[in-house]
Amino acid sequence: MESVQAKQPPTTTPEQQPQKLKPVHRMLLGFTGQEDRKIFNQIPAHVNKVHVDGLEHTKHDIVIKQVKDVLEAQSIGEICVRAHTAQSKLRKLDIFKDIQFFIDTSKGKQSGTNDYEVIFEVEERRLGGGIHGEVGTNDGAVRTAFKFLNLFGRAENVNMEYSYGTKMTSGSLMFSKPLFENPDILFRTGGYQHHGEYPWSGYRTIDRGLLADIQFPSRLGSHTLSCEGVWRELGCMNRTTAFAVREQAGHSLKYALKHIFARDHRDNNILPNKGTLFTCTQELAGVDDKVLGFVKHNMEFQAFKQLPLSTVFQLSLGGGIMKPLQSGTEVSIQDHFFLGGPLTLRGFNINAVGPSSDGNALGANAYWLGGLHLYTPLPFRIGKGGFDDHFRTHMFVNAGSLGNVNFDSNMKEDLQRLAETYRLSYGLGIVVRIGGLARLELNYCVPAQVRQGDSSNVGLQFGIGVTFS
Q1: Which of 69, 67, 70, 73 is nearest to 54 (CA)?
Q2: Which is nearest to 233 in space by CA: 215, 213, 253, 216?
Q3: How many Å apart are CA 235 and CA 375, to the nearest integer?
Q4: 161: which residues sit within 8 A by CB, 6+ positions away?
Q5: So what's the pLDDT on residue 365?
Q6: H/E element holding 227?
Q7: Could you report the per-residue pLDDT of 234-265, keeping only the tens digit for each?
Q8: Would the pLDDT of 23 be above 70?
Q9: What is the DSSP code string of 5-26?
Q10: Count of Cβ atoms closer than 10 Å to residue 7 Cβ
Q11: Rounded to an integer, what distance in angstroms lies between the CA atom of residue 105 and that of residue 112?
């Protein structure tokens, strides 16, 4: 009779434990070749029982949901694949320190030669956290996290975080729980406070907010639906802040519904060789009388293609547009699009493209961005698999534009002007992958097309961060 059994840690001595995973089955777990897969998939097998040992605080129902598919295996190869899948599901719950599984022949009186049992051994953890470094666009931070795990036995976690950086400081308290006992469907709620400085626009902000979101997958990609309420305080950084920014200073309330879709098939998120990335964000915001609401759309696309001689070609496209909910009104500078920087529109200073006032960037309600990149190994590369695999020479051409579109009148003319008043830059340099933490670029940039009000960067430009275009 097929069954799943979740048990507490055994009290027997090692000598009393049954011998698990006979040598032949230990070999099966390491099969990698296509021929091996075919052979093992042809060997009939049946799983009578699945045991989960080591549970103390965790409820049995959520664990059984992750491992019960192992009972459906019809061959030796399928047992291994399904057991690995179940192991991955248990790991996603983020409540176990260690997860191992073993395959043993079934010991029942009515067991046949093709009957097996699968034993999962887990070690729970109740606390987590640590101190980590974070990297933004030319910005660094130290993040301290502390987690209370598996509070009520069904992977309910509480996460407290504090991040201190050169420009951004934030703290948050979040509660998370998988819905329907599925680790891929995650509900989160909590509060946060964020303090940021934006020297390119001459202002600083303090945001205090409440957030609730649901993350779930689909056949197309991953989705995040969120609802957020924020009390925002905008202040001037110094006396030289432009009046166009000063007049927006003060307190405001914003509440927003947001949907984020992401489909990431890149083989590496820092220095990819192949694959594609597509992200799309829609936001519907309502605010108090001081800052009016808006609808906002933003998208990004990247494609990487590996060419001969270890060369990689990249195509990047992006764009966004925002429309106020009431005609003839302005949206807060905090919600505007900005463009420019060493990892996006190279050859221009950070967020320094487009409308400005007295040296302060104002942003705008529409933008587009495109780029072509070619990455090659270093000329003096020693060989594959060495330290120099983290370095690439980099040639690029970037183009983009940022401007305001009036939806009440002249919208067609504004969109045409946005396309025609493009900025263009090209150059070459070196890209360095700093582990899985960040991407470093040192490029010599030539801004070939600059508009009035832009702040360009001719010559060497340094950039470090995680996101890039």
Answers
A1: 67
A2: 253
A3: 42
A4: 143, 144, 145, 146, 170, 171, 172, 174
A5: 93
A6: strand 222-236
A7: 999 989 999 999 999 999 899 999 999 999 99
A8: no
A9: EEEPPP-S-GGGSPP-S-HHHH
A10: 12
A11: 9
Q: What is the rounded distance in angstroms from the CA atom of residue 76 to the CA atom of residue 41?
A: 6
The residue type at 306: Q
Q: Is the pTM of this model over 0.90?
A: no
d(CA 160, CA 131): 12
Q: What is the DSSP letter of 180?
A: G
Split at pLDDT 50, 70, 90, the class of 113 is: confident
For CA atoms 237, 239, 241, 244, the dihedral sign is positive
Half-sphere exposure of 145 (CA within 13 A, CB side): 16
For CA atoms 242, 247, 252, 257, give the dihedral sign: negative
462-to-31, 157, 394, 446, 457 alpha-carbon distances in Å: 45, 39, 13, 14, 10
- Find all residues with CB under 8 Å of 365, minimum gap 6, and list them: 321, 322, 323, 331, 336, 337, 404, 405
Tens-digit pLDDT profile for residues 405-416: 988 788 889 999
Taking a C-beta distance cutoff of 8 angstroms, is the pair 66, 55 a contact? no
Burial 42-56 (b: 16+ CB within 10 A, else e): eeebbbbbbbbbbbe
**Look-up of token digits 């933490």:** 437
- For residue 439, the model assigns a pLDDT of 92
> CA dihedral defined by 348, 351, 357, 359, rounded to 10 degrees?
-60
Structure tokens at 206: 């303090």
pLDDT band at 388 (very low <50, low <70, confident <90, very high): confident
Start-to-end Cα distance in the chain = 56
Rg (CA), the chain: 27
The region that residue 152 occupies, defined by phi over 0 for left and psi between -120 and 50 for alpha, beta otherwise, is: alpha
138 contacts 350 by C-beta, under 8 angstroms: yes
Q: Give the residue carrying structure tokens 């949907």.
A: 259
Please check whether residue 206 is in contact with residue 231, taking contact to mean a CB–CB distance below 8 angstroms: no
φ and ψ of 436, to 5 deg:
-105, 15
d(CA 278, CA 261): 8
For residues 73 and 40, the answer to whether their CB atoms sit within 8 Å is no
The Cβ of residue 369 has, within 10 Å, a number of other Cβ atoms equal to 24
Please report where in the chains the tokens 């699968």 appear, as a residue: 118
